[in-house]
Amino acid sequence: MNSTKKEHWENVFATKQENEVSWYQSKPETSLQFFESNAIPKDARIIDIGGGDSYLIDHLLAMGYTNLFLLDISENAIERIKTRLGDKASTVTFIVSDVLDFSPEVKFDVWHDRASFHFLTSPAEIAVYQKLVANSVIKNGYLFIGTFSENGPLKCSGLEITQYSEAKFKELFHSDFELNTSFIQDHQTPFNTVQNFIFCSFQKK
Fold first, then answer.
1. Residue 36, SS3?
2. Which neighbouring-strand residues pair with 95?
3. Which three-class secondary structure state does DSSP give residue 204?
4. pLDDT score recorded for residue 106
5. pLDDT (tens digit, 0 to 9) for every residue of the chain, 205 residues total?
6. What is the DSSP string of 160-192?
7. Around Cβ 34, how many Cβ atoms within 10 Å?
8. What's the start-to-end Cα distance of the chain, in Å?
């Protein structure tokens, strides 16, 4: 694990409140729309990559999903969401890990990643992630991924990011996944700034 990267994220979640980070959403409408529009079964095995203490898991639990996993490099983030969920936390599998070190013991029906993947900036890191997703999603399973677009910011939380377009996403994942949908969307941060995102929904071949 990259200790500098881990220290960065542990510090973020130790020093900032949930609504003091740019990615905060009280209700992640775009992600929830994906689950609804694709009629994802309630017992589907779903993993949220780099979800931190976002509210996706809360809403999926409220919708009746029963097989949820959350991976984040920050133990502080995981502890924050556990505290917020209370007794419901026992129904979620929490994984403290850098995604690049993740070796899942199961395969997933849905791999969800909003605003985590773009922090991988080297070709080697991106290749590890691509292989991991290909090996971790079942046939006909879904990859739903959102990153800064080519019109989005160049940095987030003080770190360099990689911008994406539909063409770049297709080039990266086309050998294992079919692109279902792609769209651009503005995210308004708690600081009243706007970040331009691209979201893509892929299905495993």
1. helix
2. 71
3. strand
4. 97
5. 667 888 888 887 788 877 667 666 778 999 999 999 999 999 999 999 999 889 999 999 999 999 999 999 999 999 999 999 999 999 999 999 999 999 999 999 999 999 999 999 999 999 999 999 999 999 999 999 999 999 988 888 788 999 999 999 999 999 999 999 999 999 887 778 888 999 999 999 9
6. E---B-HHHHHHHHTTTEEEEEEEEEEEE-TTS
7. 21
8. 31
Sheet architecture: strand order including 137-148: 92-96, 68-72, 46-49, 108-114, 137-148, 194-204, 177-188
The pair of structure tokens assigned to 14 is 């130790």
pTM above 0.90, yes or no: yes
- CA 139 to CA 81: how far, in whole Å? 31
Region of 186 on the Ramachandran plot (φ > 0 left; ψ -120 to 50 alpha; else beta): beta
- Cα 140 from chain centre: 19
How many CB atoms lie under 10 A from the CB of residue 33?
Answer: 11
Take residue 45 and report the two structure tokens written for it: 């095995």
Q: Which residue has the tokens 């160049």?
A: 154
Sequence letter at residue 148: F
The two tokens of residue 88 are 């419901």
Residue 25 CA neighbour count, 13 Å, CB half: 20
- Reference 142, options 80, 27, 49, 50; nearest CA is 49
